[in-house]
Design a protein that fits this description.
Length: about 100
């Protein structure tokens, strides 16, 4: 499991030029059950993605497809963590919790 921390490196006016493409990117990976949670930071300096990618390499490949990354308006930090427990409501998506 991975947390992808998006930090804008360009003004919001520039970031917003790529927002529609970024939303399509989020939709693609949400529909594939890779992105479990996506959202804006408060204050709005970037976003957070919780990703159920199979490996760090897969997470890096997915990040490389983000229009924010491709257009150099944001930096992404990938943090891997070992998923140990989740709410039982997520069992269908993540399997049984330990």
């Amino acid at each position: 499991m991975f947390i992808i921390d998006i930090h804008y490196t360009a003004p919001l006016e520039e970031v917003n030029k790529h927002m529609e493409a970024h939303a399509a990117y989020l939709k693609k990976y949400t529909e594939k059950n890779i992105f479990l949670i996506t959202g804006k930071k408060v204050p709005w300096t970037g976003g957070i993605l919780v990703a159920n990618a199979g490996s760090r390499e897969e997470a890096e490949k997915i990040v490389s497809e983000d229009p924010f990354h491709q257009n150099h308006v944001a930096e992404m930090t990938i943090t891997e963590f070992l998923h140990a427990r989740h709410n039982p409501a997520l069992d269908d998506l993540l399997g049984k919790t330990v």
